[in-house]
Amino acid sequence: MADETDNETPETTEPQAQAGEQVQEEAVVQDSAAADAPAAADEPAAADEAAPTEAAATPASALAAPAEVPAEPAEQVSPKERRRRSRSTHSGQSRPPRSAEERHAERVATRRAKALTRRARRLQERAKAAERRKAAPAAEPLAPVHAPVEGSPKVRQGVVVSDKADKTITVRVDIARRHRRYEKIVRSSGTLHAHDENNEAHEGDVVRVIESRPLSRTKRWKLVDVLERAR
Q1: Is 204 left (phi over 0), alpha (psi -120 to 50) or beta?
Q2: In this predicted structure, what is the pLDDT of residue 124?
Q3: What pTM does this model have?
């Protein structure tokens, strides 16, 4: 009997020993968790204490105005592309199919309506321009391009050297003048073409001619009268 009791005692004590070890391990785990809990509780407090200092260190301008984001450039869309997009997004009911004659008649009507609008706008602009011209002060007269001719036309006396051309005579004009430095009389002569309407002058006549407007490529003079006939 004693042997049986001795053999049974270890069998009953081993489960109890294992249960005691498990209880001790659980107690150790709870103690470690309790020790970590205050540390974890202290960490948010430390973070809360550090937050005001960081907020104080941050400048007020950075907190007030957020960083500006550069605006993207607006997309440049051509009128043709804009019309295509509007047609693609159109959700209304499509028009029934039309014949070529109907489309042509519609185009003609559209052009006629636009022409009427343009005509009305142009008439309105012309009326406004006329009102502006009436309200504007009178313009000052423009200065003449050529200065008025002053003085009397030149008159020359000479001898007819040729009357072969019709209504034209060639006159030799003799000039005698005193030299400005040497005080000597210098004689020279020149020819000019004069207009003789009635062919009155002949070769050798002494005539008087007067300056006139250009009558031809070379004629700038007119016959006034014949002073002396040739002998």
Answers
A1: left
A2: 96
A3: 0.38
